[in-house]
Amino acid sequence: MDDFQNILENGITFKGSKGPKNDDGKVKTKARKKKYITGAHGSGSARQKAKYREQRANRKSQRRKG
Questions:
Q1: Cα–Cα distance measured from residue 66 to residue 45, given in angstroms and rounded to the nearest whole number
Q2: Which DSSP letter does residue 22 get?
Q3: 39, 48 contact by CB (below 8 A)
Q4: Residues 6+ positions from 48 with CB-CB distance below 8 Å
Q5: Residue 2 CA to chain centroid, in angstroms?
């Protein structure tokens, strides 16, 4: 019952946040690396995905022109 009484009198205090994250500018996932995006690292799957990305980008640029 002591804890409950203490909470009623003083309220609950929460810890503050840890602060801003240190972003060192490094690429942390494969999906953001240039070689992976362009399919240049040799993976057939990555080449195919790069081809689809390029087609999608071309569609978007053609819509703006048209």
A1: 32
A2: -
A3: yes
A4: 39
A5: 45
SS3 for 38? helix
Q: Which amino acid is at 22?
A: N
Q: H or E element: which one contains 46?
A: helix 44-65
pTM of structure: 0.38
pLDDT in tens, 23-32: 666 666 666 6
Residue that wins the pLDDT comparison between 21 and 53: 53
Specify whether the CB–CB gap between 8 and 14 falls below 8 A: no
Tokens representing 19 are: 């602060």
Contacts 24+ apart (CB under 8 A), 4-7: none
